User: Which sequence fits this backbone?
């Protein structure tokens, strides 16, 4: 007989789903592809699908393996499944699932003790770089580690690395042969130490399943049904592991949105999502486009952002349809400098707080982590609590560790007492008072303890007869998965870190050329489109209030030579004070698409860069070009970066052809945005003027 909490005893499991969600959740066993736009309820849909398959008898709960990309998303999926009465289904990240499987099969396949997991590869990368004669400075090691991670995720060996990066024209931090040598050395050092990095978890698990038939048979007998969330972000390595899990079977549900592909630098590609129906011609395909997260005003802006994207494949053309009541129009704001922008954001945050918006429902999102400092300072001066996402981990905080220790001790003598009352009583011993402290560090500690109480309230409301033992187990599971509860405070986060999250109010700041899109993306059409998708992800994080701002200078009194992001063209309302300037800048961009010699259209990236079509003769000043290359070489050595990071060969060629003599002419050259103008503009113009005088 089914228990009270099992899916079989819950009538109307599909009640409350919209027609498209219901179609996805109730699709027959087999390949299913759910194209789910932002805010369309994809987690709700796939968890209901899992519960429906179990309830219908298609699969046992223990035979389901659902994988996603972050511990937080996996934790959210487990919570949703638990609310539907499904406890035995596995919901994990790719790496967590592989680690469990590898640990289980290791004694049979390898025979000795399992190798330890390498939490931080910097030490080994440093040794490998030193052997290859490269710098071991932190920034260099970070770039080298990133290249190794990309190569392994892309199934590229050290021997194949130079040819692959040449074929794909990948921007790399050193010569390909040097990086390949670092990669080769790193693998040798790591294997000698008998440790695994996170990519090894996937590689070794895949190898075990591909090379050991008995192991593969046992695994496939255990797991019959697979669900993959965020399928647009799978790497070739993750896809190969998934194929090994499936073993030719097709009981697979994938969910994704190609418009939110933002991790290609790490090897992610939407190809598997876009080619799903080619691989499984009989697959059920469902499109989720009803946006329940954001107001129609935010949805309209999001559709405008992604609608301007170039080369969108058919499978990515989802158009969101807002389902919420109308809300305020998005706000646009331009400031003289970054400090003024941050102060204005802090004032607006205070207005929202005074209007009843919770601090935890407000986020300030930026392109790079270095931008957070100005907002940390502005919020501190305004007396507004904040949390930097990616900072100190919740479960590593002293007061949280003390609280969990006290709760474990209390399980030894806990009787039949209300869970929430028990938790409050225990946490009172480690500092939880009835009233919060006035502010500062004491208030932060109090907020962390209160978050544990709220988590107990959530567990009590979803699990019948939940007790302290169950609560402590829940905390341990969350700590292992780094799935913290909500803590009161404004969130500061990068756009990449904000993926998968949402808030009532979102501030998208620093929307200037050189930052959004990021400087090194300029001149690369694919990179620019990924930056546009990242901007789209930021817009779609907002439920109701959306603020978009930029600054014309970095510091007070600095040169106001920055331009607002190209992604804002066409978004700013006609009656906005900045609209006239935006239209003027847009016209400047349009002018760049005509040949400066014959006025014909410029169709290729290189033509746009040079400002002339391929039919017209080059007017390059060879002496100037040599001087520019010599200057670039000096600057790249000073900055300890590859020469192309300063300026690409194509940009130097364009400068040598057009010979700009002022900032306006220089910034008109494709590839020279506000950031490079500010950093190198005066020096480049000096080189040009010197060459023209000689």
Assistant:
């Amino acid at each position: 007989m089914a228990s009270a909490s099992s899916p079989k005893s819950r009538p109307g499991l599909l009640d409350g789903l919209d027609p498209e969600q219901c179609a996805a959740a109730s699709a027959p066993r087999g390949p299913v592809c759910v194209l789910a736009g932002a805010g369309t309820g994809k987690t709700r849909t796939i968890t209901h699908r899992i519960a429906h398959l179990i309830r219908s008898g298609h699969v046992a709960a223990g035979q389901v393996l659902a994988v996603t990309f972050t511990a937080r998303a996996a934790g959210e999926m487990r919570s949703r499944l638990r609310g539907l009465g499904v406890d035995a289904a596995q919901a994990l990240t790719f790496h967590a699932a592989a680690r469990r499987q590898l640990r289980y099969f290791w004694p049979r396949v390898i025979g000795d003790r399992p190798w330890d997991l390498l939490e931080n590869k910097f030490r080994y990368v440093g040794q490998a770089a030193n052997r290859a004669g490269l710098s071991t400075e932190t920034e260099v090691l970070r770039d080298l580690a990133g290249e190794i991670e990309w190569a392994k995720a892309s199934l590229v060996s050290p021997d194949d690395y130079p040819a692959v990066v040449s074929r794909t024209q990948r921007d790399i931090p050193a010569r390909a042969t040097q990086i390949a040598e670092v990669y080769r050395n790193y693998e040798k050092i790591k294997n000698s130490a008998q440790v695994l990095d996170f990519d090894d978890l996937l590689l070794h698990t895949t190898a075990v399943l591909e090379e050991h038939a008995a192991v593969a048979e046992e695994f496939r007998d255990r797991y019959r049904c697979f669900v993959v969330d965020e399928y647009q972000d799978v790497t070739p390595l993750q896809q190969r592991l998934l194929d090994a899990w499936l073993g030719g079977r097709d009981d697979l549900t994938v969910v994704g949105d190609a418009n939110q592909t933002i991790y290609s630098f790490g090897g992610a590609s939407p190809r598997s999502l876009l080619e799903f129906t080619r691989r499984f011609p009989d697959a059920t395909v469902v499109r989720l486009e009803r946006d329940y997260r954001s107001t129609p005003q935010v949805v309209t802006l999001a559709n405008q952002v992604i609608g301007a994207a170039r080369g969108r494949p058919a499978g990515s053309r989802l158009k969101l349809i807002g389902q919420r009541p109308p809300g305020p129009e998005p706000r646009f704001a331009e400031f003289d400098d970054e400090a003024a922008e941050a102060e204005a954001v802090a004032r607006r945050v205070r207005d929202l707080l005074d209007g009843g918006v919770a601090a935890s429902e407000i986020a300030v999102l930026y392109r790079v982590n270095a931008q957070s400092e100005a907002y940390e300072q502005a919020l501190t001066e305004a007396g507004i609590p904040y949390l930097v996402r990616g900072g100190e981990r919740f479960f590593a905080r002293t007061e949280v560790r003390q609280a969990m220790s006290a709760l474990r001790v209390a399980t030894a003598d806990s009787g039949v007492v209300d869970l929430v009352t028990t938790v409050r009583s225990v946490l009172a011993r480690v500092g939880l008072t009835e009233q919060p402290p006035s502010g500062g560090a004491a208030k932060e500690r109090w907020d962390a303890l209160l978050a544990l109480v709220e988590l107990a309230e959530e567990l009590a409301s979803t699990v019948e007869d939940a007790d302290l033992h169950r609560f402590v187990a829940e905390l341990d599971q969350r700590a292992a998965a780094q799935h913290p509860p909500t803590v009161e405070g404004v969130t500061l986060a990068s756009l990449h870190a904000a993926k998968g999250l949402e808030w009532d109010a979102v501030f998208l700041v620093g929307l200037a050329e050189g930052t959004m899109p990021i400087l090194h993306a300029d001149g690369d059409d694919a990179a620019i489109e990924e930056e546009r998708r990242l901007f789209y992800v930021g817009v779609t994080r907002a439920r109701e209030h959306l603020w978009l701002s930029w600054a014309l200078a970095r510091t007070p009194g600095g040169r106001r030579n920055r331009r607002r992001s190209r992604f804002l063209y066409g978004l700013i309302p006609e009656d906005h004070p900045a609209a006239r300037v935006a239209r003027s800048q847009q016209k400047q961009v349009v002018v760049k698409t005509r040949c400066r010699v014959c006025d014909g259209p410029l169709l290729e990236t290189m033509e746009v860069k040079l400002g002339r079509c391929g039919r017209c003769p080059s007017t390059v000043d060879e002496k100037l070009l040599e001087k520019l290359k010599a200057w670039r070489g000096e600057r790249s050595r000073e900055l300890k970066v590859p020469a192309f990071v300063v300026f690409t060969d194509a940009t130097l060629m364009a400068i040598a052809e057009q010979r700009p003599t002022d900032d306006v002419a220089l910034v008109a050259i494709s590839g020279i945005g506000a950031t490079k103008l500010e950093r190198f503009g005066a020096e480049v113009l000096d080189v040009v003027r010197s060459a023209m005088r000689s």
About this structure: The chain has 28 helices and 16 strands. Residues 440-462 form the longest helix (23 residues). Residues 247 and 627 are 59 Å apart (CA to CA). The radius of gyration is 27 Å.
